[in-house]
Specification:
Layout lengths: L11 H19 L11 E6 L5 H12 L3 E5 L1 H4 L7 H11 L2 E5 L3 H10 L4 E3 L7 H15 L6 E5 L4 H12 L3 E5 L8 H14 L2 E5 L2 H5 L4 E4 L11 H7 L7 H4 L7 E4 L11 H4 L6 H20 L1
Parallel strand pairs: 1-2, 1-3, 3-4, 5-6, 5-8, 6-7, 8-9
Helix pairs in contact: 1-13, 2-13, 4-5, 6-7, 6-13, 7-8
Bound molecules: phosphoric acid mono(formamide)ester (CP) and norvaline.
């Protein structure tokens, strides 16, 4: 592994190895602190969009591992505007040992990796959110004891988080169901790719438009915002379409008794998820957010130690 751009690029064994490492690093940290595997190393963090979890968890992960992170706000670098993506990669990689970037166009993070002399980590693009995906898989593994054979249902917008969950879960042998409004479905070519992964792993992928049918006997129900960063102008029209896809107490009734409810956060309470569910007994939202820290430590160690 030289860069970490999309779960599509990782083998099942590589994902499982990262999960094992994340569990080890989490245990080590809970037992008193991590060894300084990244002592003296620095991570440049380039942001084109806002963030709480990604920014703070990467910063803390570097500190816990003995290194340092440098936050570069959207106004500083102005990736591709003030300077080309290629030149940013060439220059930044002369100063730091790794780059984490949150971008709009996925091609920008791919280009950063192409022209960087140091590892590049995708901290969210319009297409995918693989760091979130690793934290999600870690959380599912902790809560259910396995990923292969369980049913993971995503309800809502067919976005970056949905695509990533679909790829990761399909690679690890889960039964994935995705329920979206027809006009916000995951693109057919990505579904076909996930179906290929599922055929290799013993999992399956089902694409639906009915959220009630989708959640039947689910072990995991996952949702995300109806309007992702960069789509703000569409917020009003999306609010007209998505209400039947709200994750609420009524929807949960059709799922398994041990179902866990997941959301990458930030949540728009009262829209894609109700308070009752977000704060209810099935919710694992904040364990999931914590796991960003542990999952990303594994990625950093793998790429930079
Ligand atoms: N889930 C997630 O990536 O959160 P932030 O946008 O706050 O980083
Ligand atoms: N789909 C959301 C995820 C935020 C972490 C977005 O891209 O805005």
């Amino acid at each position: 592994m030289r860069h970490f751009l999309s779960l599509v690029d990782l083998t099942r064994a590589e994902i499982e190895h990262l999960l094992d490492l994340a569990i080890e690093l989490k245990e080590e940290w809970k037992a008193g602190g991590n060894t300084r595997q990244l002592g003296g190393k620095t991570l440049g963090m380039v942001f084109q969009k806002p963030s709480l979890r990604t920014r703070v968890s990467f910063d803390m992960a570097m500190i816990h591992l003995g290194g340092q992170a440098l936050f570069l706000s959207p106004n500083e670098i102005r990736l591709g505007e003030r300077e080309s993506v290629a030149d940013v990669a060439r220059v930044l990689s002369r100063y730091v040992d790794g780059i984490m970037a949150r971008v709009f166009a996925h091609d920008d993070v791919v280009d950063l990796a192409r022209y960087s002399a140091v590892p590049v980590i995708n901290g969210l693009s319009d297409t995918s959110h693989p760091c979130q995906g690793m934290a999600d898989l870690l959380t599912i593994l902790e809560k259910h004891g396995r990923i292969a054979g369980i049913k993971i249902t995503y309800v809502g917008d067919g976005n970056n988080v949905a695509r990533t969950l679909m790829f990761g879960a399909a690679k690890l042998g889960a039964h994935v169901a995705i329920a979206t409004p027809p006009q916000y479905a995951i693109e057919a070519q990505y579904v076909a790719l996930a179906e290929q992964f599922a055929a290799e792993s013993g999992g399956s992928v089902a694409v639906l438009t009915d959220p009630i049918a989708a959640v039947a006997d689910s072990d995991v129900i996952y949702t995300d915002t109806w309007t992702s960063m960069g789509q703000e102008e569409e917020a009003a029209s999306r609010r007209q379409v998505f209400p039947p896809y709200q994750v609420n107490q009524a929807l949960l009734r059709g799922s398994g008794a041990k179902v866990i409810v997941m959301h990458c956060l930030p949540a728009h309470r009262g829209e894609e998820i109700t308070d009752e569910v977000a704060d209810g007994v099935h919710s694992v939202l904040f364990d999931q957010a914590e796991n960003r820290l542990h999952a990303q430590k594994a990625i950093l160690v793998e790429l930079m130690a």
